[in-house]
Each structure stands twice: as structure tokens, then as C-alpha cells.
Design goal:
This protein is α/β, with parallel strands linked by helices. It is built from eleven helices and ten strands. Helix 1 links the parallel strand 1 and strand 2. Helix 1 packs across helix 6 and helix 7 runs parallel beside helix 11. The radius of gyration is 19 Å and the shape is globular. The structure holds NADP nicotinamide-adenine-dinucleotide phosphate.
Length: about 280
């Protein structure tokens, strides 16, 4: 039975697809450039990728609350098991300011999944370690300076490979239905400590600079960002500054029976794989 993966070119989806293929499972890796194409914002593309699918790993669209209608389409198509990538803080008061809660698609997505007639598992990861090697911090690492309004706050960065391993377990094994797995790495690091680990792994000169929320937004706007996007980025970092992203979660251990991988090991592997050239 085909397993659908949305976001299959992304940090987690790509790893889920690779692991499933290694297990010999039939995979439909869906995205805007796949065949057939899948675009969250074009619901006419949903049916073709759901055809013949019995299980799905859903990487939601962050731009709008589309998980709920997509789940309805998936159930209509006969999907029986769904593993949803969500995020930390969905149920933590004050994690996001109330006026920004609408911008978090995971709140409505989780609620829709929990009430659906389907075998479900929710993954709630913290900040991905791979943001530094594949994501929105990578260019800053290459430029030698990461500027963020994160202060001396720490985050318990989680390996995207660990998230993918939990997703694959939930898709292919019994015992994960109805579980919500909060996922983190085994220790919290400040942005300065994280960057120092990468400097040590790569031999690059790279530093972290704390900037105020207002200065960060102004710098991004000066670079051409829409103000709302710049503000949203700063808001997403604010839990780190406020110290509420440093807690450790046991989801990797609970789901896989082994400890989560440490940031240092993950970044060393990324350096060896040429993540920063
Ligand atoms: N990064 C973090 O630290 C973090 C932490 C907690 C939770 N999360 C959550 O994890 C999820 C994935 O984040 P990520 O960092 O893994 O993202 P990512 O690596 O940037 O991947 C995003 C994926 O979404 C797909 N995509 C984008 N727009 C699309 C569209 N209109 N239609 C179909 N597919 C589209 C992209 O595929 P194509 O470009 O091929 O279409 C890509 O595969 C998000 O919901 C995020 O909120 C992230």
C-alpha cells in the first residue's frame, strides 16, 4: 500500500521517504515538482496524490490552515493512518502571543486530526538542528555571523533524522496510534553554543550576535522582507529568548527505545557530508 509523504523535498520529509524506501515500502513523495504535482494551495492537486494511499506522513503548509480540509480529502480517499508533523508550543500558554496564534497552522491541524476517524500520531518537534545546515540559518553560517533576537536563551535542537525515524516507526509499526510525541535533542544549547559547535566541526570562523527584536525586524525589512514576515520570524524566535524552548522532551526515547542524537554529532555528520561546502 502506497505511503504518501507531503513536503518530501524538505528536511524531514526527504528523510522519511529515504527510510521508507530502504525498508522496501512503496512511497509517493509529493511536492510542487513531483509527478503528479502536489500543491497545498491548489486543492485540485490533492486527489491525484491521495489515490491508492492508505498511510500518509503530512508535513503541513505553514502559510494557511489547510491541514483540516486536506485530512477530509484523505479520509474520503480511504487513508487509514496519518502521522502529522506539528510543532512545539501548540498547547503551551504564552509560547506565541495571542495575536499570532492564528498564524500557527499546527493548532487547527492537530485538532482536526484528533477528531478524525483515522489512526493518528502527532509529532511535535522543537527547533531542528538542520536549520543550521539545510535551513534558514545556513546562509548566516556561511557568511560567518548568525544574527538573531534570541538573547542567551537555549533550545533543545532535535535531529531531523530522529524526527524521520519516529515518523517511520509510527507509519510502519504498531503501538504508536493515538500518541503525541514531543521531540527534542538530549541537551539545550544557546545560539552562541550551537554556532561554536559548528565552528569546531567545520573549522569556519562563525559567531552569534544577539540583536533586539526591533532591530532584527528592521534589518530584514531593509533586506526587502515584507514587515509581517519579518515580524513573524522574530516572533518564532521569541520562545528561545524567553527560555521556554530549552526543556527536554522524551519522545525519541519513547518511540524508538534509544536516546535522541546530540547536536554535536548531528552537526559533525553534516560537516562531513559537505553541508557548508
Ligand atoms: N524548522 C524547524 O525548526 C521546525 C520546528 C518545528 C516544527 N516545524 C514544522 O515542520 C514543518 C516542515 O518544516 P521544514 O523546516 O521541514 O520545512 P522545509 O524543509 O522547508 O520543507 C518544506 C516542504 O514543504 C513543501 N512545500 C512548500 N510549499 C508548498 C506548497 N505550496 N505545496 C506543497 N508543498 C509545499 C516543500 O516542497 P516543494 O518545494 O518541493 O513543493 C518542502 O518539501 C513545518 O510545518 C514547520 O512548522 C519546523
Amino acid at each position: 500500500m502506497t505511503i504518501l509523504i507531503t513536503g518530501a523535498t524538505g528536511k524531514v520529509g526527504r528523510r522519511v521517504a529515504a527510510r521508507l524506501r530502504d525498508l522496501g515500502r512503496p512511497v509517493r513523495a509529493a511536492g510542487r515538482s513531483s509527478t503528479p504535482p502536489f500543491d497545498w494551495t491548489e486543492d485540485s492537486t490533492w486527489g491525484p496524490v491521495l489515490d491508492g494511499v492508505r498511510s500518509a506522513f503530512v508535513v503541513p503548509y505553514d502559510g494557511a490552515p489547510l491541514t483540516r480540509p486536506f485530512l477530509a480529502a484523505a479520509l474520503d480517499a480511504g487513508v487509514k493512518r496519518i502521522v502529522l508533523l506539528s510543532g512545539r508550543g501548540v498547547d503551551v500558554d504564552g509560547y506565541l502571543p495571542p495575536e499570532w496564534l492564528h498564524a500557527n497552522p499546527h493548532i487547527d491541524g492537530e485538532a482536526a486530526l484528533r477528531s478524525a476517524a483515522v489512526d493518528w500520531t502527532v509529532l511535535r518537534p522543537g527547533w531542528f538542528a538542520q536549520n543550521f545546515s539545510e535551513g534558514f540559518f545556513r546562509d548566516a553560517i556561511l557568511a560567518g555571523e548568525l544574527r538573531l533576537p534570541a538573547g542567551d536563551g537555549a533550545a533543545s535542537f532535535v535531529d531531523a533524522g530522529d524526527i524521520a525515524a519516529v515518523a517511520v516507526a509510527a507509519l510502519t509499526e504498531e503501538g504508536h496510534v493515538g500518541q503525541t510525541y514531543e521531540l527534542s535533542g538530549p541537551r539545550a544549547l544557546t545560539m552562541g553554543e550551537a554556532v561554536a559547535e559548528i565552528a569546531a566541526a567545520t573549522g569556519r570562523e562563525v559567531r552569534y550576535t544577539d540583536v533586539s527584536h526591533a532591530d532584527f525586524v528592521r534589518e530584514l525589512v531593509d533586506q526587502g522582507w515584507p514587515e509581517a514576515d519579518a515580524e513573524g520570524y522574530a516572533i518564532s524566535v521569541s520562545p528561545v529568548r524567553r527560555g521556554i524552548d530549552a526543556y527536554l522532551s522524551d519522545g525519541v526515547e519513547r518511540a524508538l527505545g534509544r536516546p535522541a542524537r546530540d547536536f554535536r554529532d548531528v552537526m559533525r555528520d553534516a560537516a562531513e557530508a559537505g553541508a557548508w561546502g
